[in-house]
Amino acid sequence: MGKKFSKVTTSHWGAFNVFVENDKIINTEPFHADPAPPNISQLVPNAVHHSKRVDQPYVRKGWLKKNTTSARGNDEYVPLSWEDAIELAANELIRVKNDFGNEAIFGGSYGWASAGRFHHSQSQLHRFLNSIGGYVSSYASYSTGAAQAIIPHVLGLNFHKVTWGEINSWKLIKKHTDNLIIFGGINPKNSQVSMGGSTEHDVSNHFRNFKQLGKNMVSISPQQDDSPKETTWLPIIPGTDMALMLAIAYVLETEKLANQMFLNTHSSGYELFKKYFLGEDGHSAKTPEWASQQTGINASTIRDLARNMASGRTLICVSWSLQRARYGEHPFWMACVLAAMLGQIGLPGGGVGFGYGAIGNVGKTAKRMQGPLFEQGQNPISDFIPVSRISDMLLNPGGPYNFNGEKRIYPDIKLVYWCGGNPFHHHQDLNRLNKAWQYPETIIVNEPWWTATAQRADLVFPATTQFERSDIGWAKGDPYIFYMPQMIPPVGLAKNDYDIFTALSKKLNCEERFTENQSSEEWIEAIYDKFYRQARSQGINVADLKTLKEKNFERMSIDQDEEDYVPFQAFRDDPLRNPLGTPSGKIEIYSEKIAKFNYPEIPGHPIFNRPFLNQKFPLRLLSPQPHDKLHSQLQVAAEDKTKHAILIMNPQDAKERRISEGDLIKIWNSRGSCLATLKLQETIIAGVISLATGAWFSPTKDGLDISGNPNVLTADTGTSDLGQGSAAHNIEVEVEKYQGV
Ligand SMILES: Nc1nc2c(c(=O)[nH]1)N[C@H]1C(S)=C(S)[C@@H](COP(=O)(O)OP(=O)(O)OC[C@H]3O[C@@H](n4cnc5c(=O)[nH]c(N)nc54)[C@H](O)[C@@H]3O)O[C@H]1N2
Ligand SMILES: Nc1nc2c(c(=O)[nH]1)N[C@H]1C(S)=C(S)[C@@H](COP(=O)(O)OP(=O)(O)OC[C@H]3O[C@@H](n4cnc5c(=O)[nH]c(N)nc54)[C@H](O)[C@@H]3O)O[C@H]1N2
Ligand SMILES: [Mo]
Predict the structure, then answer these.
(1) Is 110 annotated as catalytic?
(2) Rounded to the nearest whole angstrom, what is the distance from the C-alpha of residue 141 to the centroid of ligand 3?
(3) 727 lines ligand 2 (CB under 6 A)
(4) Strand partners for 474
(5) What pTM value is reported for the model?
(6) Which end of the chain has fewer surrounding CB within 10 Å, N or C?
(7) Ligand 1 pocket, 495 CB below 6 A?
(8) Is the per-residue pLDDT at 1 higher than 80?
(9) How far apart are CA 59 and CA 66, in angstroms?
(10) For a pLDDT cut of 90, what percent of the chain falls above it?
């Protein structure tokens, strides 16, 4: 490490140059090959050297004194030496293991942490916990919990295989698609981010291109800026896409625009489902007039949309946000049904696609390869929870719950270990989580910053950031490979997660199992070597590690490979020889299997469940991802720039409430309240407001969250008993001008 230099690194939001002087990051600059570099990196210098870094290990006073556990979030911390801190944590892990078994340790530890393949926080924690006998894990993600449950029933494939494999590339869309019908938007703001990094941000570019080619692009969303300006905005009331989709089905069927032949050969259950939307089963017919009442869209507009979709090549795009809400399984299921009715699944540029824009690398055409990977080992404990059922688990040990046809029991957790995530940013109904969080006997957190979660831990280990260690950067769908050099020494007494777990594993007599006697550098060499050999065997010419270190990064010539891959083509060509993995081998419009689960909110076919409306709270709150950061990361630097969170509202709603732009607003409902500064925009429909995620929960004594975290308002219910996914969007709230100081 010299006195003054600049080098390239990568992050979940892409690559950037880091400028270092005297062991401090002083500046960042965009990566030369990124056509639309995110501004997020600008927050890095301030955040990395911020006073809210955890400077050394700490223990919570109340926990140390073994008095009540009920003061988490409200207690003082005592600084510890590394030696003492490791000793305390190791003894506690041994105690819990001996007294209650590994099934009392929750190591789900959901979160995005940092890019970099070796220092991947969850892998580090999971490998450590596996080497001490295992842990209760968490299943699926906050991003796509409902999708991961429903899509295998309908398309017979793991949802990730659809997202990263059976999907039309941007290049196929450009060549073949006439109509891009987008539910929930394709937002360049969100596509800044991809797991492990997206190096060339090109989503805006695609839309400029498509416009020039004269494509018909409709963005169905409560917010206009959910899609690039080249799209036509069709405003919709959130939570009602399902009603619109049913009416589209109604028009296709009654105007004989549905592809009956494809439905006969490639789907099952259409005749049963048809009775539902035609109103032949005792329910009301799902006519455009009916849907208009639900969605706020004109009946004639719905008819035109359906007719348009049946003319030319149509791709139905659905954003992940639609399933991150109560009953979120239905619009995903129904999008597949509509695509089957149009009969274009398996044709280039046609069918259905999920998550374009949600994640920058979706739709990219880099050759699929096995990335460099730090193996987690085997977990001897099979118990898990659906990831967003954390509060339910802590509040109801031994309690029963339903999940995707199973009757399950919540484990009795005594010790929680979190590494690389911030539940007091990401979980729904944070006041409820705050209560649930008091139940375990011990909570250990590895974190670089004093996040809302670190502030509620018993033992806090200061972790390095990605700038304080070297690593390999690689992401699915991205053609780049990076050597991420260490830029600065660890800040304060921070240590790498690997070194923290190595020290713990020594005390727990499993050092060899955890480390295999290798240092970080040796591990990086080993996992890179495996990647290198695999790539070479696939005919991909990647640099060896020594060369990569010198070059800092390399663009592999792999991006043309998958461009003409047509999803579901083999199934389309011969559904008998190439059946889907569903019970019928076909697209399941009706699922016997789901019907047998007997969940009222999700019977054997998609239905519309009207979103909950409580007149006391007439506004619908959306909580999308922040444009200026990744979740709650770098929040310390973001809040130095803008003091309060920003609430987006339509001017009409503001007028009715006599509030104006710039006012400090209290947003509240029966679950909690928070503060944000008002911004008025015509780009959001009246009756709906939007407050981005990303704040660190900071309640006052009276329970008012001054950070502006929408999760003090959101509901901690699963999407349904099927998916048990996070249901964060579309929450009933009211607002008023804040009268306090
Ligand atoms: N209301 C609402 N809530 C939501 C959503 C929504 O749409 N609406 N979206 C949900 C979704 S999709 C997601 S993915 C989640 C995201 O939620 P999280 O993934 O929990 O959010 P992050 O802020 O990325 O948390 C990562 C944490 O890891 C820490 N970290 C970074 N590097 C390291 C490291 O090397 N070691 C260690 N030990 N820690 C590190 C960071 O400081 C940060 O605190 O939020 C969910 N919450
Ligand atoms: N800059 C940035 N980008 C990110 C992230 C980040 O933290 N920062 N996080 C990443 C992560 S982890 C994920 S999972 C993805 C999430 O990607 P998405 O799930 O697509 O994103 P959201 O931001 O939750 O929602 C997108 C939009 O959906 C609309 N919407 C909400 N409910 C409805 C509805 O019922 N109907 C319709 N038609 N529209 C609705 C809202 O207007 C919202 O702005 O984003 C990723 N991208
Ligand atoms: Mo996510």
Answers:
(1) yes
(2) 7
(3) no
(4) 481
(5) 0.98
(6) C
(7) no
(8) no
(9) 12
(10) 94
| CB-CB neighbours of 282 under 10 Å | 7
Distance 420 CA to ligand 1 centre (A): 7
How far apart CA 460 and CA 445 sit, in angstroms, is: 5
Residue-wise DSSP of 49-73: T-TTB--S-EEEHHHHTT--STTTT
Please tell me the distance between residue 111's alpha carbon and the centre of ligand 3 in angstroms: 9
DSSP label at residue 287: -
| 565 counts as catalytic | no
Please indicate whether residue 633, judged by its CB atom, sits closer than 6 Å to ligand 1.
Answer: yes
672 pLDDT exceeds 90? yes
Tokens 């055409």 — which residue?
Answer: 365
- The number of the ligand nearest the C-alpha atom of 625 reads 2
* Residue to mutate (ligand 1; options 138, 195, 389, 422; most atoms within 8 A of CB): 422
Q: CB of 136 closer than 6 A to ligand 2?
A: no
Of all protein residues, the one whose alpha carbon is nearest to atom 24 of ligand 2 is: 624
Mean pLDDT over the full length of the chain: 96
Q: Is the pLDDT of residue 563 over 70?
A: no
Ligand nearest to the backbone CA of 693: 1
Which helix (DSSP H) or strand (DSSP E) does residue 688 occupy? Answer: strand 688-691
Q: Which one of 13, 63, 77, 110 is the catalytic residue?
A: 110
Take residue 450 and report the two structure tokens written for it: 């004093």
Q: Which ligand is nearest to the CA of 195?
A: 2
C-alpha–C-alpha distance, residues 369 and 366, integer Å:
9
pLDDT at residue 560 above 70? no
Q: Whose CA is nearest to atom 13 of ligand 1?
A: 142
pLDDT, one tens digit per residue, over 45-93 is: 999 999 999 999 999 999 998 866 568 999 999 999 999 999 999 999 9
Say how many CA atoms lie within 13 Å of 509 toward its Cβ: 3
What's the pLDDT score for residue 304? 98
CA 255 to chain centre: 39
Give the separation between CA 30 and CA 665, rounded to whole angstroms: 35
DSSP-assigned beta bridge partners for residue 684:
223
| 143 CA → ligand 3 middle, Å | 4
Q: What does the pLDDT read at residue 152?
A: 98
Please state the rounded mean pLDDT for residues 681-697: 98
Ligand 1 atom nearest the C-alpha of 624 is 7
The C-alpha atoms of residue 85 and residue 56 are separated, in whole angstroms, by 10
Report pLDDT digits (tens) over 104-151: 999 999 999 999 999 999 999 999 999 999 999 999 999 999 999 999
- 553-555 and 77-79 strand pairing: unpaired
Task: Give the tens place of pLDDT for each residue, 14-35.
Answer: 999 999 999 999 999 999 999 9
E strand or H helix that includes residue 331 = helix 329-342
The protein residue with its alpha carbon nearest to ligand 2, atom 47, reads 190
65 phi/psi in degrees, rounded to 5: -80, 0
CA distances 130 to 209, 277, 501, 556, Å, are 49, 49, 12, 34
* DSSP output for 379-446: -S---EEEGGGHHHHHH-TT-EEEETTEEEE----SEEEEES--HHHHSSSHHHHHHHTTSSSEEEEE
Residue of minimum CA distance from atom 36 in ligand 2: 238
Quick one: what percent of the chain has pLDDT higher than 70? 99
Residue 2 has pLDDT above 60, yes or no: no
pLDDT of 169 reads 94
